[in-house]
Amino acid sequence: MEFATNDVINAINGIFFHDYVVYALLATGVLFTLWTCFGQYRALTHGVQVTRGTFDKEDDPGAISHFQALSAALSATIGLGNIAGVALAIALGGPGAVFWMWVIGLLGMALKMTEVTQSMLSRDLSDPENPHGGPMYVVDSLFKKAGGRFGATIGGIFCFTLVLSAITGGNMFQAWNVAAVTTQYFDVPGVSEMAKTDGFNPETFAIGILLAFIVGSVTIGGIKRIGSVAGKLVPFMCGLYLIAGIIVLLMNFAVIPEIIMEIFKYGLGFGNASAGGAFIGGTFGYAMMWGIKRALFSSEAGQGSAPVAHAAAKCEEPVREGVVAGLGPFVDTLVVCTVTALIILATGAWNRGPEATFADDSGVSLTLDGENWNLSTPVLPHKNEEAKTINRVSDEETGWSLNDSVFMMFNAGENEDSGNTLHRVSGTIIKNENGDLAVDWDSITVKENENGETVSPTLNSNGVWANYPGASLTAHAFDRTIPGLGKWLVVIACWLFAISTMISWSYYGEQGVVYVFGKEGIVSTFAVTLYRIIYTALVAVSTIGFITTDAELDMWTTLGLGAMLVVNIPIMWIYGPKAMKAYHEYIGKLKRGEFDS
Q: What whole-number distance in Å separates Cα of residue 191 and Cα of residue 336?
């Protein structure tokens, strides 16, 4: 049943996140970059002035300030995408993925300026102190003059994708990573020694329950409480993370120039990133796709989610809030994501060596069982000296923990993503009948070569790697420079980033529910209440243990991201001329000094 579900979702993702969807988004970013005459400049200059309150008026319609609106939007984007998503992109795509993250960051500034301007032009101000906005209101207003319910229907479809993205990327991705990185470093009192079963991990589930309680307590207060919390939380968590990150980069400064060269080399397609250590290799196309996918997920540019938060801003000039929104991808992708990426690359966390190695005569073997190969290994050897130092464990300890995820490398049929024949086989640390730590390995599906011939797998080495999924890899990168730093900094940052993201995305999804079921009445109240309960419950459900790998996690987040892009990109194109007309009229007034007073 699990594989059937995964196959269906991956098939849907193949449509939602087809190459043509990515090309359409890139083309849209280029279009609005040129149409705004490189409006990124306006975001970095005029946008900063607006955010500081230079143009604020007390009687402007809205519920929160420009700064709070930007903070609320940033709290949704500066989350585990910056810590876990970047790590995922590099672990699978290599250094070239970072280049495409930068491309999306720059184009994303123009995308977000445009989509927020569109939403501000069509936001619902029937209640000036509690406005509503987003692509659903854009498309509704666009077709309203033609009569009928076509615009409302398209708006409803967008709301469905909004809720879908809220519960996957804005919720499940965040909670799963927090649980993974927390349990990597800390034991949960009373449950850590409980055995993990298929589909249930008591340790991560305990973390999920606590997260659900915190998120539910904040989201019940609506956008004003979310804006207030985000306005305090975002600057603090960004500052804390960036200061520590810059310190680590300064300590590894000698390798930064070489890393920058590799980012451009592989990002521009001058060869494929070769395998080494934990990195199995990555083709140009694979690096490009991962960089784009993770940058989109992190910055949310083109998704249509940020306009929901910005629509609540106290603002009389629609374009003004759009310019403020352009700062989002700059801070999120070009600053925070870049720091994370450089740390992972500079410390060698992405292509690290094995933590332990089985002896040649220890009995490691691969046996064929029907259509699968089974890997058999003896008791796990202790981690090596370097790994113990990084993880701050004593010589007497093995360095491994029950339920840890590990992997080994094997050669088999061609791997299209890596451009070679390398593959990984994952396993979970268990206790054998003697109470010693061993590994329960996943089975290896029979591989075929380009001629359709069955290829027998052979182990690349007897090395065993600890699997650091998502945020855990970033934490490990910090630890490789300052042992123990990742344990505290990244775990704390993950909690803050994830909570801020989940509370903002809860509001996004709620606004989708409000649009579909109305702002008032028994039906609306019931729908919103039910949504809040389900959203909060899913925080805990996602940590139960049914998601076990990076690939499964990415599958769920891609589903929500792809669905929103497919619906929102056409809306941006159709409404683009009106938004651009308003943009240039506003910039003209700004140049003439009409706002100086």
A: 34
